[in-house]
Specification:
Layout lengths: L5 E5 L11 E8 L2 H9 L9 E3 L5 E3 L7 E4 L4 E6 L3 E7 L4 H10 L17 H5 L2 E2 L2 E2 L4 E8 L5 E5 H4 L16 E11 L11 H8 L6 H15 L7 E5 L5 E3 H10 L6 E2 L4 E3 L2 H7 L10 E3 L6 E4 L5 H19 L8 E3 L1
Parallel strand pairs: 2-5, 3-5, 4-19
Antiparallel strand pairs: 1-2, 6-7, 7-12, 8-9, 10-11, 10-12, 13-18, 14-16, 15-16, 17-18
């Protein structure tokens, strides 16, 4: 079946903020062959398209002139196993939370703390997504990606992905060069439970379990996230909008002197992490409602579109928050969400 390139397509349903901008050219790929065919067509040939998956970590500020390719590659399989681990391969277009549930159903351990994170599998290594003490790099084995200009399929290992805090080589040095096709995860046969981060243990205690399991941890994470974070299907948002800043120890000490209640988490002798949500809330932004958009009432890290907001309005709110936090605390926040264009 021939690929159909659509023109002037609204992207409102393809980004979790629900921002209504148009794509000049738009095509959907469900196989590698379709990816290759799309990239050979005139609107796409020789260009680096905007790759959309779940649309969960982007803020669209204007109509997209760059051609858009929607990644809908599907499939999950047990690729291999050894004495300790299962190697599970998931196509980039698979929904992340559904993939986590699939793993839990099969008792493949390691991704349970990452339950209910919006988006698709393909974005997980690109962003090095993380929550409740676990990051994708902790369970990552390899990925396959297609080079947009050379037409080669390459396998990347963890070192080549250059993972950092919500970072990878695909957001930096190799940005715009590759389309992630699939990701292979290394998941444990004998689970190691991560329950010390955040309120997980407290939630597990409330659940009054007979036995600890990856399913129980997943449910605890789902309970916590559901109580604090808005459902993108109901209120437009992209989850955490800002990264937790890593600051010099001297800055952390000064913050503690001025605000004894400030949560500070030492990383090493030179640096410490400060929760961005605490800084934003302390500055008075939590629950700020500007009509069409604002800061969520239960989680200061989350900017929301209540309906009809433009990307520029949400961006301007983020700019105001960045400026205020810097002025008050001398700490520069960084956006976690990708701003386009």
């Amino acid at each position: 079946m021939a690929i159909h390139v659509e023109e002037n397509v609204s992207l409102r349903l393809y980004n979790t903020f629900g921002i209504d901008v148009k794509a000049k050219h738009f095509a959907v790929a469900a196989t590698l062959e379709e990816v290759q065919e799309i990239l050979s067509l005139d609107p796409y040939k020789g260009k680096s398209p905007l790759i959309l998956g779940g649309g969960s970590n982007i803020l669209l500020r204007a109509d997209i002139v760059t051609p858009v390719l929607l990644n809908r590659l599907k499939g999950i399989s047990l690729f291999a196993e050894d004495e300790d681990c299962y190697y599970v391969k998931a196509s980039a277009g698979e929904n992340w939370h559904q993939f986590v549930m699939f793993c839990i159903q099969h008792e493949w351990a390691g991704v349970e703390n990452l339950s209910l994170i919006p988006g698709n599998v393909g974005a997980s290594p690109m962003q090095n997504i993380g929550a409740y003490g676990v990051e994708v790099k902790d369970v990552f084995h390899s990925l396959e990606a297609y080079h947009i200009f050379d037409g080669v399929v390459k396998e990347f290992n963890a070192t080549e992905c250059a993972f950092g805090y919500r970072e990878s080589v695909f957001k930096n040095k190799e940005k715009g060069n590759w389309i992630i096709l699939s990701v292979t995860f290394k998941l444990r046969k004998r689970p190691v439970f991560h329950t010390n981060y955040g309120a997980i243990q407290e939630e597990l205690d409330k659940m009054k379990l007979d036995k600890m399991s990856i399913k129980a941890i997943s449910q605890a994470v789902i309970n916590i996230r559901s109580s604090k974070l808005p459902d993108p299907k109901k209120i437009g948002n992209a989850g955490s909008f800002f990264k937790n800043p890593v600051v010099p120890i001297a800055v952390a000490k000064t913050l503690k002197e001025s605000y004894p209640d400030a949560p500070v988490y030492p990383i090493d002798e030179l640096t410490a992490k400060v929760p961005a949500g605490w800084l934003i809330e302390k500055a008075g932004w939590k629950g700020k409602n500007l009509g069409s958009h604002g800061v969520h009432a239960l989680q200061a890290l989350v900017l929301v579109n209540y309906g009809g907001a433009t990307g520029n309005e949400v961006y301007a709110l983020s700019e105001a928050i960045l400026s205020d936090v810097k002025l008050r605390f001398g700490i520069v926040l960084e956006r976690e969400v990708n701003i386009l264009p």
